[in-house]
């Protein structure tokens, strides 16, 4: 169950993050498959991580009363038959705490956070350490979800514009930004639309799986889930300022050893005139998805990162 954005109290959510930090809360979020395996081995919630990380049902006395009271005011405490559950989770990323959807993430408007988030942020951090952003770079985070990507680059001096088609995602991203002390702009709607002006850097971690229910946070569209990633790249290359950079993390289905996303990107980058770098970050993610009929011909799903710089001629980045 995901709370409606209209039912949330932003100030109470901010207070919750502050309280959790004061209590030393930390939790690294895993894949849904791993999450299910861990829950199958546990029965009683005993800690803050059990409640806000593993998202277990808990007896109210497990939590300090001040945290319970804030959860009620925030609109995220589900109470039934003497037990309770948080409608949102909280994950650690470096020294930040980030709100996102509760487990399982089955709702159409679920706000994703997981291992892809960590890989995405590490990919961007590596990119900006090799080639630093200009001072006060204006960045656009397309499909920002919890805001993890844009907020991470804000720590490198960037000015983030956080975009999502999901109002709940922008609501949580705004609270996460306030908790981190980061000033951000917010842009609701289709992130591939040409609006918001030019950007020094555009980042994205789009959904890339083939989801039978076509849930927004998970479904990457046609061509084995790469349609949305290609569309985002096409849009980004139009909207970058001269010398601007695209940092795109996604997943691709490899069929008979061929990376179809890379093949499409080669043509797009040649036409646009870009310096670029392409990295296979993890050769095997979401292996359980290969059991789905849509992936009948796929060898594997790989996590990849594309860096592209708007330039006069095409070259491979060093």
UniProtKB/TrEMBL annotation:
Keywords: Methyltransferase, S-adenosyl-L-methionine, Transferase
TM region positions: none
Domain Methyltransferase small span(s) in chain numbering: 135-248
Biological processes annotated in GO: methylation
InterPro entries (alphabetical): DNA_methylase_N6_adenine_CS (IPR002052), N5-glutamine_MTase (IPR050320), SAM-dependent_MTases_sf (IPR029063), Small_mtfrase_dom (IPR007848)
Top-rank taxon, per record: Bacteria
GO MF, one annotated term: nucleic acid binding
One Pfam family this sequence matches: MTS
PANTHER family: HEMK METHYLTRANSFERASE, MTRF1L RELEASE FACTOR GLUTAMINE METHYLTRANSFERASE
Protein name as catalogued: Methyltransferase
Organism: Noviherbaspirillum pedocola
